[in-house]
Structure formats: structure tokens, C-alpha cells
Write a structure and sequence with these properties.
Keywords: Metal-binding, Zinc. Pfam families: tRNA-synt_2c, tRNA_SAD. It is found in: Cytoplasm. Its main location: cytoplasm. Its cofactor is Zn(2+). Strand 5 (about 50) and strand 6 form a beta hairpin. The strands form 4 sheets. A 6-stranded antiparallel β-sheet has the order 3-2-8-5-6-7, with no helix packed on it. It is α+β, with helices and mostly antiparallel strands. It has helices at about 95-115, 140-155, 165-170; strands at about 5, 15-25, 30, 35, 50, 55-65, 70-75, 90-95, 120-125, 130-135, 160-165, 190-195, 200-205, 220-225, 230-240. The N and C termini lie far apart (about 50 Å). It folds into 2 domains: about 5-95, Elongation Factor Tu (Ef-tu), domain 3, CATH 2.40.30.130; about 100-240, 2-Layer Sandwich (Threonyl-tRNA Synthetase, Chain A, domain 2), CATH 3.30.980.10. It has 3 helices and 15 strands. The protein binds zinc ion (ZN).
Length: about 240
């Protein structure tokens, strides 16, 4: 039975009840359902803890996919108690961390609107996100910050529209990532839309995002690095622009 990945339909679900279905030899835990996001598409998997009926906690080091996207493995920290197959657990995502990742991830989408170039790589972190673009132009980071904050302050709605794998394959133009494959293989693809009727952007993405751009808060471009003739690496950080070069 594929896991019911609850976060795909509710980015704000931080807790849920679930049952253990499999324990891997290395201690990895599979559940029948989960609100823990598994590492993919440049967004790190969730941490947090699983609570047993007697109140003891199993702290998680990370959450990752198995051989397919239908498998989600909750990896406990070393030395944590091991639950039994069939045991019922209450799941608790480390919400402050996840929410920062959601804000930063949404900021990456906004950057792809301001810089409409093909994306060759991206990594979302709690403090910083980096996005690599296939571009040779030189662009002023303060100007990019200004345009990003405009989009944040306009408070556009962010929502998901589900399309079929076939619809995505028939419309390859909506994919901005060159090397990052769209989240195919589930039979349906989540299209992340920004603005009323996707007036700002729409992009296939399986990550988690905030529900309106204002939630991203203050962000700025800390650095634009030249990585080869046709590659620019942008670093987004939280807060107002500081003294970074
Ligand atoms: Zn996304």
C-alpha cells in the first residue's frame, strides 16, 4: 500500500495519527500515512518526532523517499526507541523549521518570476536558498531584491492545481527547470500557482509552500555568483539586505 502523503494536500498539517507498516533493518520507519515531507525537489525532508501511546518520543533525523515516491521513510536519530509494526503513533513535524522552509521555497518561485531564465539547480535551506539559472546577463542584486519584495508585499495567493501527467507532457513549456525533473510518476502533478488565475506564475512542483506571498516576509538577494559563462547562482536570505558582498 502506498503511503498516504497528507502534506501533498495540506501544507499546513503539522500533526496526524498513523500506524507503523514497516520497520527497515537500519531502523527506518514506514507509516500508513504521514505529514512528514520527504526530501525531494531541492527541499529537505522534515524533522520532528513520533509520539508513542505512553508519551515517549522517537526523534527523527530526517524523512526521505524509498525506491519510489510512494515510499516515505522516517529515519530516527541514533539510539531512539524502535516502535513495533502495527503500533499507533502521533506525528509531530518540527513546525518552525518546516515553516521557514516553506517560506524560503516560495521565495524561490518568486525569484523565478523576477528572473525568467531556465533553472539548472536549486536547494532550499532554513537560513538560505540558492537557485542556479542558465543565464549570461549581469543583473543587480538590489534591483532583484526590490522586485522580490514587491511580489511579497502584493500578497498574491499561492495555491495548487492538480493536472494529469499527460497534461504536463502535452505542455512542456510550463516546466522551468532544466535539470530538476517535474514530480511525475504519481499519476497527477501539482502545479503551484501564484496570483489569481495564476497571473504571476505557475510551475510544476511537489514541495510545500505558504498560502500567500506576504507570509514569505522580508527576504533579499545576498549574493549573485558567476558559476561559468552561462550560469548564475543566486543566494536568497531572510531579513532586510545586510552588508554581504
Ligand atoms: Zn515549489
Amino acid at each position: 500500500m502506498p503511503v498516504d502523503a497528507l502534506y501533498r494536500d495540506d501544507f499546513y498539517l503539522s500533526t496526524a495519527e498513523a500506524e507503523v507498516t514497516t520497520i527497515h533493518e537500519d531502523g527506518g520507519i514506514e507509516l500508513n500515512r504521514t505529514c512528514f515531507y520527504a526530501t525531494s525537489g531541492g527541499q529537505p525532508g522534515d524533522t520532528g518526532f513520533l509520539e508513542r501511546a505512553d508519551g515517549t518520543k522517537i526523534a527523527l533525523a530526517q524523512t526521505k523517499h524509498g525506491a519510489t515516491k510512494d515510499i516515505i521513510i522516517h529515519v530516527p536519530l541514533e539510539g531512539e526507541p524502535q516502535p513495533l509494526v502495527g503500533e499507533k503513533l502521533t506525528l509531530h513535524v518540527d513546525w518552525p523549521r518546516r515553516y521557514r522552509l516553506m517560506r524560503m521555497h516560495t521565495a524561490c518561485h518568486l525569484l523565478s518570476v523576477v528572473c525568467p531564465y531556465p533553472i539548472t539547480g536549486a536547494a532550499v535551506g532554513e537560513e538560505e536558498a540558492r537557485v542556479d539559472f542558465d543565464m549570461s546577463e549581469t543583473i543587480d542584486r538590489h534591483e532583484v531584491t526590490g522586485r522580490l519584495m514587491e511580489l511579497v508585499n502584493q500578497n498574491h495567493p499561492v495555491y495548487v492545481q492538480w493536472i494529469t501527467d499527460e497534461e504536463l507532457i502535452a505542455n512542456p513549456g510550463i516546466v522551468k527547470s532544466k535539470n530538476v525533473r517535474p514530480p511525475l510518476g504519481l499519476g497527477r502533478v501539482s502545479l503551484v500557482c501564484i496570483g489569481r488565475d495564476s497571473s504571476v506564475d505557475s510551475q510544476p512542483c511537489g514541495g510545500t509552500h505558504v498560502s500567500e506571498t506576504q507570509e514569505v516576509g522580508a527576504i533579499h538577494i545576498a549574493k549573485i555568483e558567476k558559476k561559468g559563462k552561462e550560469n548564475r547562482r543566486f543566494r536568497i536570505r531572510f531579513g532586510a539586505p545586510g552588508a554581504e558582498a
